[in-house]
Amino acid sequence: MRPTALGTPAERAEGRQKITGTARYAADHAPEGGAHARAVPATIVSGRVSAIDTEAARALPGVIDILTPYDAPRLGPSDDPTLQVLQDTAVPHRGWYVALVIARSPEAARAAAAAVRVTYETAHHDVVLRADHPDLYTPETVNGGYPAHREHGDPEAALTAAPVRVDCSYEVPPLHNHPMEPHAATAVWDAGREHLTVYDSSQGAGLVRSALASLLRLPEERVTVVSEHVGGGFGCKGTPRPHVVLAAMAARHTGLAVTLALPRRQLPATVGHRAPTLHRVRLGARPDGTLTAFAHEVTTHTSRVREFVEQAAVPGRVMYAAADRLTTHRAVALDVPTPSWMRAPGETPGMYALESAMDELADALGIDPVELRIRNEPANEPDSGRPFSSRHLVECLREGAERFGWTHPRAARTDGPHLVGRGVAAATYPYFVTPSTARAHARPDGTYVVEVNATDIGTGARTVLTQVAADALGVPVRSVTVAIGHTGLPQATGAGGSAGTASWGWAVHDACTALLARTERHHGPLPAAGLSASADTAQSAGQKSPYARHAFGAHFAEVQVDTVTGEVRVRRMLGVFAAGRILSPVLARSQFVGGMAMGIGMALTENSTLDPVHGDFVESDLAAYHVPVHADVPDIEAHWIDEHDKHLNPMGSKGIGEIGIVGAAAAIGNAVSNATGRRLRTLPLTPDRVLAALG
Question: Is the domain covering 31-124+178-270 a CATH 3.10.20.30 domain?
C-alpha cells in the first residue's frame, strides 16, 4: 500500500532555517559595499512640487545621490500608475514619494531624507467618505472583475411587501495589513550583462519581474526576481509596490547594489489598505424566517491614481435564498492612497454587514440565529443559478453549535461587572485556481526535487507542496525538496485569493505523476542527471467550471463586556469550516486560527483614521494601530468538515488562507449585542462606543 502524505501532520520544510536565523529575507541580501535608499514622502494632500532643495542633504556624510522628479530616470509603461514614481511633480495624496536619497548606510539615507526641503503648490483636497457625496458613481466592475450592480426581480417592491423587515446601516473603517516584515527590496544591476537581480518581499516574484521589465524597458529574461522568504503579506504584497521600483531605479542609476526597506510609518500611504465601506442592508422575510427580499448597497472610496473598488456586496450573491435581490456598489475618487487587497477583500467587510443584519432579523423574528441561516439555505447559487460543487454550511452551523454549547434563546448573563453574550455568523470564500507550471526531478540517490515559482508568505507553502509531491510520487516527505520563490523556476501564479495550494499543487501533482510514470517505464539505475518531467495546467485548471465553487464556515463567539470601562473581551471562539480536503492539518489550523484572530482585531481594536485636515492615516505604526496580541486572543478552536469535492483539483482542496477572517467580526459583534441588548453598527467596538451605547 502506497504511503500517503496528504492529510497528515508535517514539520515546516523551512522551520530550521527560520528558528536558526538563516532564512534570508529581502533586506538580508544587502551586500558589503552596497548602498541604502530612503524615500521622501509628500507632506501635502493634493497639489504639486514647485521646488526641491537638496543642497543640505547632499552635504551630509555618506550621501551618494538624490533623485527627484526633475532628474530621475524616465520609466517605461505600466498598467499600475502607483508604480510611476518620480516621473512628474504632481502629488495625488499625502505620502506620495517626491524624492529618493541613496547613501552608504541606512542611517545616512535617513538623515539626508530628513534634510531634503520640498516646496509645494497646494490644491483643495477631499478625503472624507460619506454616503451622500456628490461625486459618487457606480463603476462597471469591482475588484475580482465582478459586475458592480446585480438585480433580480423587484427587490424594492418585495421589501415593501415583506411582513417582517430590517433596514440597517453598518460602517467598517479603513484597515491596514501591517505584515511583520515591512516591504523591502535589494536590487543589483550588472552593467556588463545588462541584467537586474532583485530580492523583493513580494507575494509573486513573476508579477514583479514583468512590472520591472516594462518600467525599465528590459526583456523579461534580463530580470531575475527572488522572493524566497517573505515575512507576511495579507494581500498588501500581492502586487508590485513603489519600493521595488525605486530600488531597481537606484541600482541601475548608480551601478551599486541598493537596499530599500520601508519604515513602518510609510506603509499606510504606500502599499494599500482595506478601503472604508458604508453598508446598507435590507432584509424582508416571512414570519417563519424565510427571506423574500434582500438588498446590500455598499459605498466606498477609491483614489484618483487608480480605481480599486472593494467588492463588499458580492458575498451576498452567494449566501442565502431570496427571489428578489439587489447587490450594488458606489465609489468616490478621493485624495487618498489607492486601496488594495487585504485578507479576503470584499468578503470580510461584506459578510460583517450581512451577518450582522441576519442577526438583527433573527432578533426581530425571535428565531434562533443558527436556525434562521439554515432555513434560508439555497439549493443553487442564488446569483448564477449554478449548482454548488459542494456546500456544507448547514453542517458547519450544526456541528459548531454542538461543539460550542449553543442554546436558544441566547439569554445574556452577568459575571460580576461583566455582561456575557454569544454570537454566531456564517463565512464564505470563493474557490480560485490559476494555471501554473512545475517541474519534478528524480535523482539517482532516491531523492526528488520539485521546482515551482510559488511564494511562501508564512503560510507553509513549501511544506504542503512537499506533501503534494510526496503523495503523488508515493514516497516519504523526507525524500522531497521543493524549490520556490525564484523567477528562474517554472512560472506560477502569485500567492493570493487563497488560490496558491490549488494552483501550484495541481501543477506539482501533474509533474510528479508524469515523473512517476517515466521512472516506472525506466529500467535499471537512473542516469547521473536523473529523470525529469514537467507539467502545465493551462488546459485543465484554465477551464471554466459549470459549478459554483466556494468554501463555507461558521463562527461562534462568547464575549464579556465590562460595564464600568466599556472594554470588550472575547472569552472564546470556535470556527467550523468546509474547505474541501484538508491537506495539512497543522498548517490548516494555523491559517484558520490566524484568520479568526485577525477578526478579533477587526471587531475590537483595528482602525485607521483619515485625518480630514492633513489627509493622512493617523494610526501609522503598531503603537497606534492596535493588532491583537497573545493577551487579546483567547482559546480559539478550529475544526472542519471532511468534504469530498471532485470538481476542484487533483487534491480536492479549497483555499483556507482567508475564510478564517470572514464572518469572525460579525460573530463578535453579534455576541456584544446579545450581551448588552444594544446594537453597535460601527467598527471597531472600542470602549468609548460601548459605554455610549450602554448609556
Answer: no
